[in-house]
Amino acid sequence: MPDPVRTAESPPRATAPPAQPKRSRRTARRAGRFGQFDTKASPYLYIAPFFVLFGLFGLFPLIYTAYVSFRDWTLTGGDNGFVGLANYSEMLSDDRFWNALFNTFGIFIVATVPQLLLALLLANWLNKKLRFRTAFRMGILLPNITSVAAVGIVFGFIFADRFGLLTWLLDVVGLDPIEWRNSRPAAWTAISIMVDWRWIGYNSLIYLGAMQAIPKDIYESASLDGASPSRQFWRLTVPLIQPTIVFTAIISTIGGMQLFTEPLLFGYGRIQGGALNEFQTIAMYIYERTFDSNYDYGYGSAMSWTLFLVIILFALGNFLAVRRSLRGSTK
Amino acid sequence: MWEASPLTYLALVVACLLSIFPIIWSFIVASRDNSAIYDIPPPLVPGGNFLDNTSRLLANEQASFLIGLVNSLFVSTVVTISVVFFSTLAGFAFAKLRFRGANALLLVIVLTMMVPTQLGLIPLYMVMIELGWIGTLQAVIVPFLVKGFGVFLIRQYAQSAISDELIEAARVDGCSTWRIYWNIVLPVLRPAAGVLGLLTFMETWNEFLWPYIVLDSNTPTVQVSLKILSTGNYTTDYAQVFTGTALAIVPLLLVFIVFGRQIIGGIMEGSVKS
């Protein structure tokens, strides 16, 4: 990343020649002590609130999670001291943990692959000469602006077992009803549909933004060479917006690993995620162990920190992607 | 650019209908009587029970829906003002002021965007206990007063939108840095600040997990009271649940209808710049 401060304003005026009689009093003051203090200190003052608040409520909790994860600490029992890796080894032999991790990755894959593919397709359609452009864009973005909680309730009924909208629809087209909450693939699919419904439009607008930054003459010469539109899409558009695709993939990963509200509300608010925990995600299991019954802070922290380490791998990739596009935008 | 074919239009119309349908359906159920949800075929046209459902919803003391609405409005407004204020302040400093360590600090801010706050929930909860904030609105406001994304977004915008000459001229005229920010920079940043404000408002309004952990039915946000509604002792009254759902979406719909163009612009812009 090039140095942004180099291109910023020139050095402070504190060393300017002594105030000339023509200058106003305010100019004189600017050139004096206050001016010097102002230019030196105000940048730090302006960024300080962010760092103080983030430090207190973002960074500190994260580090403290690691600390708590090495202790036997519950709400009722209090802090019973250092236990080393006991929480972590409990976690590794905890079937519920592995089940939740399995579900999280499963739902993530079932959700993300079609989500990004459909978003690409949608973006490609939107990237044409189009009437009612704004209306279409607003239409596909609408799911993203509504709350997960509200939508989770609505989808809970769309996927209701006996009287659900989808069950009825399946019946109309002559298919057997699906017990959405009693089978792992069905539950994963239903939750993935909820997630995708919410995020396809958002991702496709991000792709659309990237597509519109592609110079048009590339396509003109491709057309002259006889490349069909679909060939142009896969051979030109997709490779050219690759950094953006990487970016959305990693953002989806971070979100997917933390999936909580959709499966919670899909299971009518029960934290166990199905009778046999078929769709309990890792975030739900952490919640169950920490805030629902046991209040086992130590164990919950160990799981959180592990999940964080998983996510940080993707986050690193994310950072590299962001950095790469940053380099472009700051010249 | 290619001409869109009728097939493209058809695909887009279908995509939009699928997008909009669940929301419309929640309004349909909200306007029917309580048993409509069991109907086969399910209700697909609105009925006349919306006001009746609403009055039952508001009379439902367990869910505290009205309190939830007011609380959400308050929390979202405070968080939005704060995020916009601190982000423009810091974004301006990073884009246009010279100071030692600026690059390293900016890098830290970019990195904070990748830290999932959810993973610090347990200690954050413990902090809230220490502060005695459990069950109070401070608990859902104070931790969210700043946002790395906001600082970054504004910084990117400010860098190209504000000319160095303008700031230079203001300095020669004797403006303090604060006056430059307030009188010159802030008006220029208005479009970006507006988008940031809209996104922050919606995000805060929709926030579920953290309010659900620290708040209870005495001081819920609207999402928390929705959860209470949908899973509490009133689960049989689905019309009421869907009325709550619909009413919780209305403020966002209004914001979206008025400012949709800017929000879309902000999201598309973000893809190229971030």
Question: What are the key terms here?
Answer:
A: 331 residues; mainly alpha; MetI-like fold; two-stranded antiparallel ribbon; 14 helices; 2 strands; B: 12 helices; globular; ABC_transporter_permease (chain A)
Q: What topology emerges from the helices and strands here?
A:
The complex is a heterodimer of chains A (331) and B (274).
Chain A: H1 25-31, H2 33-69, E1 71-74, E2 78-82, H3 86-92, H4 95-126, H5 133-145, H6 148-158, H7 165-172, H8 184-212, H9 217-224, H10 229-240, H11 242-257, H12 261-266, H13 282-292, H14 297-329
Helix pairs in contact in A: 2-14, 3-14, 4-8, 4-11, 4-13, 5-8, 11-14, 13-14
Chain B: H1 6-30, H2 50-59, H3 65-96, H4 102-112, H5 121-131, H6 138-141, H7 148-161, H8 164-172, H9 177-206, H10 209-214, H11 222-231, H12 238-273
Helix pairs in contact in B: 1-12, 2-12, 3-7, 3-9, 3-11, 4-7, 7-9, 8-9, 9-12, 11-12
Structure description:
The complex is a heterodimer of chains A (331) and B (274). Chain A has 331 residues and is mainly alpha-helical. Chain A has a single domain (94-329), classed as MetI-like (MetI-like fold), CATH 1.10.3720.10. Helix content of chain A is 69%, strand content 3%. Chain A has a two-stranded antiparallel sheet with strand order 1-2. In chain A, strand 1 and strand 2 form a beta hairpin. In chain A, helix 3 (86-92) crosses helix 14 (297-329) and helix 4 packs parallel to helix 8. With 274 residues, chain B is mainly alpha-helical. Chain B is 72% helix and 0% strand. Chain B is built from 12 helices and no strands. Chain B has helices spanning 6-30, 50-59, 65-96, 102-112, 121-131, 138-141, 148-161, 164-172, 177-206, 209-214, 222-231, 238-273. At the A-B interface, helix 1, helix 2, helix 4, helix 5 and helix 6 of A face helix 1, helix 3, helix 4, helix 5 and helix 7 of B. Chain A: The chain crosses the membrane at residues 44-67, 100-126, 138-160, 186-208, 240-260, 302-322. Chain A: It is a multi-pass membrane protein. Chain A: Keywords: Cell membrane, Membrane, Transmembrane, Transmembrane helix, Transport. Chain A: It is found in: Cell membrane. Chain A: Residues 101-320 form the ABC transmembrane type-1 domain.
